[in-house]
Design a protein that fits this description.
349 residues; alpha+beta; Glutamine Phosphoribosylpyrophosphate, subunit 1, domain 1; 8-stranded mixed beta sheet; binds aspartic acid
Length: 349
Amino acid sequence: MKRFDCSALSALVLMMPLALLKAADAAKDGRPGKVVLVLHGGAGDLPGQKVSTEVDKEYRDVMEKALRAGYKALQREKGTSLDAVEATIRVLEDSPLYNAGKGAVFTSEGRNELDASIMEGKQLRAGAVAGVTIIKNPITAARAVMEKSKHVLLTGRGAEIFATHQHLDIVDPSYFWTLKRWNELKEAQQKEKDEKRKGSAAPMRPRYFGTVGAVALDRHGNLAAGTSTGGMTNKRPGRLGDSPIIGAGTYADNEACGVSCTGHGEFFIRYAVSHDIAALVKYKGLSVQEAADEVVQKKLKKAGGEGAVIVLDTKGNVAVSFNSERMFRGWITEDGKVHLVAFHEKPSK
Ligand code: ASP
């Protein structure tokens, strides 16, 4: 067996540009075993060093709980990748920490309008809901659209009536009100005013996205991907991002890979990010990491589109790529080993 020269490796790592480190996450931690489930909890410019280990742990714990829920679904005799994606995302939606479900951000009118989508890679079936205000778990509604309607995407009131008929959990809109998100809205609106006063035409860059997503692989070799979000703080009422758009925020194809995105949605829609990554894998034969980097580190970065993606193929190869400061992410291998990154790159427990 060849001996590994550690000092040479450390020197190499030190010389690596930051972008490369961000793109080579999976390899950096040693080759992971076969990954069966990967999730993200958003990306953005987050002051990692300033955040206490306690806060880091809170975010990490929710991601771990979500991964375990998804893993459990995969372990069940009839468990599918769709079950895993839904179970994972529901945990994140029920937490006020992430920008999905309970923790959704506010529109400029001070309301919460939620988007979600889900897709499976065997038959390319998909479902999505957008601009919903009373559905507790939009990812479950997205799945119901896929499985119980003739449509792919339902919006607003129509989606809510459908969810009610499907006996999904319906809540009062006030369920989504949290002080943290309210303060973020006020801060964003104040900044916008200040910018206007200064006559600056520069569009405001959002600091942290916080959307959630998951991609799973089941024992039948089927992939599924899903994404759920409150969108972007201070968005116009009625604005939809990439998260409910199949081919933009979410895509799955067993002949390529499953993808879930987070970031500045307008760019992800224009660049059809999730489908573009799948197409690079399918038609050009790129690995999931090469395809993710091609789109996130090259195309999106050049265009000024900030964000991140998670990708998984049917062999259990995982890729993450982000061009923002940091990205919340985690995955679980088939033997149940969990890998997590929140504010701090190293685990706090
Ligand atoms: N992509 C989402 C949107 O634009 C936001 C996010 O990822 O946090 O609505």
